[in-house]
Amino acid sequence: MSAAQPDTPLREVGEPPSRRGAHVLGAVVGLVLAPPAIVSLAHGAQELMASPAGEVPLGGWPWLVLGAVLLAGIAATAAFASSLALVVAGLWAFFPGLVGGALTRPLLTAPAPLELRSAVSVLAFSGVLLAVGAALLGAALGVHLARRAGRHQEQADAAPEPTVLDQDDETAASPPPPLPPPSRMWAHVLVAVFSLALSPATIILLGRAADRLSLELGVQGGGQPWQEPSLLLACALLVLVLALVGMSSLGAQLAGWLMYLLPVVVAALAIAGQHWALNVMLSLDSAVGVVAMLGTGGLAILGLVLVLGGGAGHFARRTGRRLERALRAVPVAG
After folding, report:
1. Cβ distance 202 to 303 under 8 Å?
2. Does residue 9 contact residue 332 with C-beta atoms inside 8 Å?
3. What φ, ψ does residue 302 adopt, rounded to 5°?
4. CA angle 328, 330, 332 (to 5 degrees)
5. Taking the model in full, what pTM does it have?
6. Relative orientation angle of helices 185-220 and 229-243, to the nearest 10 degrees
7. Sign of torsion, CA 209 210 215 216?
8. How far is 237 from 230, CA to CA, in rounded Å?
9. In this predicted structure, which of 150-159, 214-223, 297-306 has the lowest mean pLDDT?
10. 10 Å Cβ neighbour count for 332?
């Protein structure tokens, strides 16, 4: 019998069993690495930004680098394995950040070095911890969408199978080559412009929230970040910017570098004895809160989260394409 056998059906929907292990790995990495990453970043950023003028804050850099490496490990796990790593890490910061100032007293009496407890408590009552949690959750959403976009792009770019031709047909032409993938330039441009346009508003909203929450801490002994409209709106903008990583990772990375470099530049100028940058900040709306966030390093931490979230989205798109190629090569059981 020489009848042509039908092509083996391919698995187009679902996940191979190995993805379960990826989700477990992501959850474990987020659960284990997120707390030391947040504490290290908080302490390192505070040491870096709060050093007296004219002194180089060498003591803060090792902590900042350690926190960045741990956070990069979480982002890499989300990109190459499962976005659940960023979800768990975001929950570590989001839920404690909701209560804000109520964490101050338990943190200050916890069995840990005072510098570490103080750094985390400052992030908690100023609303930065809640913003970090929202940014990590937004990064998880962006990475998930980027991985799905990569799979869809691979499906669209897959070359069509050659048509079986009659052997007697000598005039049949060879199948046309696959079309090149569509350009994503406009996606990069639009997302970058939109993200950069939202960054100043996000910074001002965070500063306004820090103003009010710090005042409530002094008057009432602790504020409730979940009741602060400016902070909630800033968190929504952060989630939006990071969710757009599903379209392009460029916007989140540019916005992140803007937030990260702003306090670093101000600190460098202060170390050099140039205080004009602070004077410019003091002329802006919500300046006291923004300057306070500069002093605690809150903006630097948020900028780092955005940069790493954008990078994770970039590699998640590639991972999605590789995953789709693997799925297309797996025959359906039976």
Report:
1. no
2. yes
3. -60, -40
4. 105
5. 0.82
6. 160
7. positive
8. 11
9. 214-223
10. 11
